[in-house]
């Protein structure tokens, strides 16, 4: 699962599927696995599904309470064909954003460019993703834990952090960006 920046193209695809969606949370699943498209409230959660044809932008609804419809058509779930996008709007204790399910053959148009990072940059990204900056009275907790676990020095940490900020994998405050999350997703 990749996180997508809310670029104009991504937002436009989201509006084709769900015209009223104004959020900024977008994900991409290009695994090619079958997706269960059952749509009903359960435990405070629900997902709505729409299929969009990429060539025409045509939107095709999947019936609500699709469990009966889908169970008859595809009991194991729906596999997305090349040239189509299955879009899920998920509510999981609140709005969880849109997920685009695409066939691996179609995925190239959606995938962000691959980003290579050094070992030190990888350490900084993982710490920025998984740890608070201050914790238990320790300021710069991310560095503290990374030094303990990986032996990184302050100079190497600062150099890697500056490089990540300049490449927009961390923001100016040192928080991980969407692009940084995707790097961790490929190296974690």
Concise overview:
It is built from six helices and six strands. By secondary structure, the chain is of the alpha+beta class.
Any chance you could write out the topology, listing elements then pairs?
Layout: E1 2-4, H1 8-17, E2 26-29, E3 45-53, E4 59-61, H2 66-73, E5 84-92, E6 95-102, H3 119-130, H4 141-150, H5 154-166, H6 178-187
Parallel strand pairs: 2-6
Antiparallel strand pairs: 1-2, 3-4, 3-5, 5-6
Describe what this molecule looks like in 3D.
The chain is an alpha+beta fold and 188 residues long. It has two domains: 108 residues, no CATH class; 69 residues. Helix content is 34%, strand content 19%. It has six helices and six strands; from the N terminus they run E-H-E-E-E-H-E-E-H-H-H-H. It has a six-stranded mixed sheet with strand order 1-2-6-5-3-4. The protein is elongated. About 4% of the residues have low confidence.
Shape: elongated
Which percent range describes the beta-strand content?
15-25%
Q: Structural class of the secondary structure composition?
A: alpha+beta
Round the Cα radius of gyration to an integer and report it. Answer: 20 Å
Question: Any idea how many domains?
Answer: 2
Q: N- to C-terminal separation? A: 13 Å
The spatial strand order of the largest sheet comes to 1-2-6-5-3-4
Number of strands: 6
Count of helical stretches: 6
Low-confidence stretches: 66-72
Helix content: 25-40%
H/E element string? Answer: EHEEEHEEHHHH
- What does the oligomeric state look like here? single chain
The average pLDDT score comes to 83
Q: How is the main sheet built?
A: 6 strands, mixed
């Amino acid at each position: 699962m990749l996180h997508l920046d809310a670029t104009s193209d991504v937002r436009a695809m989201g509006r084709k599927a769900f015209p009223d969606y104004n959020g900024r949370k977008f994900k991409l699943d290009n695994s090619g696995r079958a997706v269960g498209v059952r749509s009903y409230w359960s435990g405070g959660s629900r997902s709505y599904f729409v299929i969009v044809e990429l060539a025409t932008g045509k939107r095709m609804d999947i019936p609500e309470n699709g469990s009966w419809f889908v169970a008859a058509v595809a009991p194991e779930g729906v596999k997305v064909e090349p040239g189509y996008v299955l879009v899920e709007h998920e509510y999981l204790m609140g709005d969880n954003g849109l997920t685009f399910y695409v066939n691996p053959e179609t995925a190239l148009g959606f995938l962000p460019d691959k980003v290579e990072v050094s070992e030190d940059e990888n350490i900084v990204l993982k710490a920025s993703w998984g740890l608070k900056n201050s914790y238990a009275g320790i300021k710069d907790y991310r560095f503290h834990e990374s030094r303990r676990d990986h032996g990184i020095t302050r100079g190497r940490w600062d150099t890697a952090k500056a490089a990540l900020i300049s490449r927009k994998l961390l923001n100016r405050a040192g928080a991980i960006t969407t692009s940084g999350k995707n790097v961790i997703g490929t190296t974690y």
